[in-house]
Each structure stands twice: as structure tokens, then as C-alpha cells.
Design a protein that fits this description.
InterPro entries: N-glycanase
CATH topology of the largest domain: Glucose Oxidase, domain 1
Strand content: 15-25%
Strand order of the largest sheet: 1-7-8-12-11-10-9
CATH architecture of the largest domain: 3-Layer(bba) Sandwich
Signal peptide: 1-21
Number of helices: 9
CATH class of the largest domain: Alpha Beta
Bound molecules: 2-acetamido-2-deoxy-beta-D-glucopyranose
Order of helices and strands: HEHEEEHHEHHEHEEEEHEEH
Keywords: Signal
Number of domains: 2
Distance between the termini: 47 Å
Region (Disordered): 48-75
Radius of gyration: 21 Å
Helix content: 25-40%
């Protein structure tokens, strides 16, 4: 108990590129560099829960690695007992004798993850849970962050909103709601064996960790770090390299632009054109990558292709992130 958040903030600070580092070119433009932060407790369970629970398509995470023996628990073992305080009262395992057998899926949120933010904001993934959660399966929703209490209330609102639209049958609505458990206490503070499992059985391959983008400018002596969500579809195969890139304004990306050649195109989500059109325009303009930012107040979205678009391979990486006023001001 008590180690989780300390580890996070420390790692985040250590990971920051130092401003004014010697390897930054003299060009007075912002640079963009990909990076991923890992923490001791970065066991983001989203992709794994989705595979087992049939919820969405996951992020391509590898099979769960074998946990170190220190956790004392291994896949296939009978889960030890637990008691959790939820928004709707106490949840106990094993259940009282008269109850039907149940299986539990645990999912912990952190808003430091663009993937989880999108998963919980996007109608399609919420609908998939509402429509496809197997009968008798229960899901326990938690948060890694200190804001767990507000996080899980928000998660519950997101899900209940979709359930109200989709589940007109009251008894089905009540049955599903009784199988969704929202725990308003951060994972590190649960005080039972569950945090150890989250930290030990963590995702260890690509697409794990908290994908970020760091902007630095020798001129402004400022570093801006933002979470990013990588496009992860068949049509975008390239991943970011870890060396710095030059960043240039590509407008809304609905037109070809000679400015972005040899640079990363920074484009808005506005304009009457799809993400596919934006990315293909920037690839045609010989950009090395694309960063789309969403307008203030909007959540990160999946950058998806439609129909025949998905057959076109694109050979530059693309990610989506939040609006960054400092970066935009410096570019324009
Ligand atoms: C998550 O973070 C984004 C900004 O990065 C913010 O707009 C959003 O409100 C946050 N969501 C929650 C549930 O805290
Ligand atoms: C609601 O769903 C239950 C279980 O599937 C079914 O038995 C019941 O008839 C349904 N009620 C209505 C009003 O459709
Ligand atoms: C962008 O392209 C569209 C159609 O492809 C055109 O109508 C529009 O004028 C262009 N805008 C700029 C600023 O070039
Ligand atoms: C472009 O605008 C038309 C008409 O307003 C609309 O039907 C279409 O969905 C828009 N396309 C995109 C990609 O926003």
C-alpha cells in the first residue's frame, strides 16, 4: 500500500526530456518525440479485460506474462477472498452460498492513458460491454488515480447512459447493473491482494505503458507532455521512432501542404474531411508523421478508416492528442 502514486510521479518527472538539451537542432520550431512511460504499477488491464470479456477489440497487447513468484498468485489459481466497498455497497468474494457462481473481471482506469480515456468516452466500446458481457460475469471497475471516487462515478454515468438507450427491458437493465461494481478507492489503497495482481501481471509488450508525446522548444525553454492515442488499424503500420522530429502546422489536414514535408504535421480535427483523408493528405505531402489534436473539451477518439479506405496502407505513424495551446501558439 502507498507506493503506487509516488512511483508514478517520480517516473514521470525522471522521464521528462531536459529543456535546452544539446541534441536539439537550432531550428526555432517545436520538436516532437514519442515516448512511453512505464511505472511499477502500470498494469493497465484494459486490453486483457477486453479479450476475456468480449469488450471491444483491445489494443493488441501481448498475452499476459507469467507473474513473478513474489505475488504468490498464478493464473488458474482459485482467487483468494476479498471484500470491496463499492458505490452500491459491499462486494464479497466468495459469495454467500445461495448465490449463483460468478466470475469477476477487474478493470482499472487511469486518465493518464489516452487508450482508456477513449475506451470510456467512445460509444462503440461502451455499447460492446452492454451488449456482450457474458451472463453471470461481473465486472469490477477501479481507478489507479487519486481521483478514483470521481473517476468511477463518471464511468458509471457513461455506462448507465448507454444502458438506458440500449436496454429497454427493466429486468435486463437491473441484472446488468447488478453485475457492474464501481470501487471509489484507488487501486493502491485497496488494502488486499488485488493491487499486487495489478502490479505483477502487467502488460509488457508494445502498446503497453502510457503513450505520450513530448514537445520541446529551445526558444521557449518549455516542455509540454501530453498523452497520445496511436492509430492502431491495419492501414497504419508505422510506429514513431524515438529520435526527435520537427513539428509543423498542417492546418486541418484536409488539403495537401508543402510545409509539412520532412516534418510531423500537427493538424486539427476540424474541416469537412475524415481522419483517413487527413492522414493520406499528410502522407502525400511527405510528412514523417501526423499528430491530430481534438478541439478543447472533446475526448480522444479512435482514428478509424471506413470501408475501402482500410485497404490503403499508409506508411507514416499517426496519433491523436488533446488541444495544446502553447504548442499551437508557438507554431502559428
Ligand atoms: C481526462 O483527461 C482529460 C484531459 O486530458 C479531461 O478532459 C477529462 O475530463 C478527464 N476525464 C476524467 C474522467 O477525469
Ligand atoms: C425482459 O427480459 C426477460 C429476460 O430475458 C424476459 O423474461 C422478459 O419477458 C422480458 N420482458 C419484457 C417486457 O420484454
Ligand atoms: C482545400 O481543398 C478543398 C477541396 O479539396 C478546396 O475547396 C479548398 O479551397 C482548399 N482550401 C485551401 C485553403 O486551399
Ligand atoms: C462533410 O459535409 C457534408 C455535408 O455537410 C456531410 O454530409 C459529411 O458527412 C461531411 N463529411 C465529413 C467527413 O465530415
Amino acid at each position: 500500500m502507498g507506493r503506487g502514486l509516488g512511483a508514478w510521479s517520480l517516473l514521470l518527472l525522471l522521464g521528462l526530456p531536459r529543456s535546452g538539451a544539446g541534441d536539439i537542432s537550432t531550428e526555432k520550431l517545436w520538436m516532437v518525440k514519442e515516448r512511453v512511460v512505464y511505472g511499477d504499477d502500470s498494469g493497465l488491464p484494459g486490453p486483457r479485460a477486453s479479450l476475456e470479456g468480449g469488450w471491444g477489440s483491445g489494443s493488441g497487447a501481448a498475452a499476459p506474462p507469467a507473474p513473478p513468484p513474489a505475488s504468490g498468485l498464478e493464473p488458474g489459481m482459485l482467487a483468494p477472498a476479498f471484500t470491496l466497498d463499492t458505490l452500491d455497497g459491499e462486494l464479497r468474494f466468495p459469495p454467500a452460498k445461495e448465490q449463483r457462481p460468478r466470475s469477476f473481471i477487474f478493470q482499472a482506469f487511469t486518465n493518464k492513458s489516452g487508450f482508456l480515456e477513449c475506451l470510456w468516452s467512445c460509444q462503440a466500446s461502451l455499447v460492446a460491454l452492454v451488449n456482450r458481457l457474458p451472463q453471470r460475469s461481473h465486472v469490477v471497475f477501479l481507478s489507479f488515480d487519486d481521483s478514483a471516487s470521481t473517476d468511477v462515478r463518471w464511468m458509471k454515468r457513461q455506462l448507465v447512459g448507454v444502458m438506458e438507450e440500449r436496454l429497454k427491458n427493466i429486468s435486463m437493465f437491473k441484472d446488468l447493473l447488478s453485475r457492474l461494481h464501481f470501487v471509489p478507492i484507488p487501486v493502491y489503497a485497496l488494502g488486499n491482494w488485488i493491487p499486487a495482481i495489478f502490479y505483477a501481471w502487467r502488460c509488457q509488450d508494445h502498446n503497453c505503458g502510457l503513450a505520450q508525446v513530448a514537445f520541446t522548444s529551445p526558444e521557449l525553454k518549455l516542455t509540454v507532455v501530453a498523452k497520445r492515442l496511436d492509430a492502431r488499424y491495419d492501414w497504419i503500420m508505422k510506429i514513431w521512432r524515438s529520435a526527435p522530429y520537427i513539428l509543423r502546422d498542417g492546418g486541418d489536414g484536409c488539403n495537401i501542404s508543402s510545409r509539412v514535408k520532412g516534418a510531423v504535421a500537427f493538424i486539427s480535427d476540424e474541416g469537412n474531411c475524415s481522419y483517413f483523408t487527413k492522414v493520406i493528405n499528410m502522407a502525400t505531402s511527405q510528412a514523417l508523421g501526423v499528430l491530430v489534436y481534438v478541439r478543447p473539451g472533446l475526448p480522444l477518439q479512435d482514428m478509424n478508416c471506413q470501408g475501402a479506405e482500410c485497404l490503403t496502407a499508409i506508411n507514416i505513424p499517426a496519433s491523436i492528442m488533446h488541444f495544446q495551446k502553447d504548442v499551437i501558439d508557438a507554431l502559428r
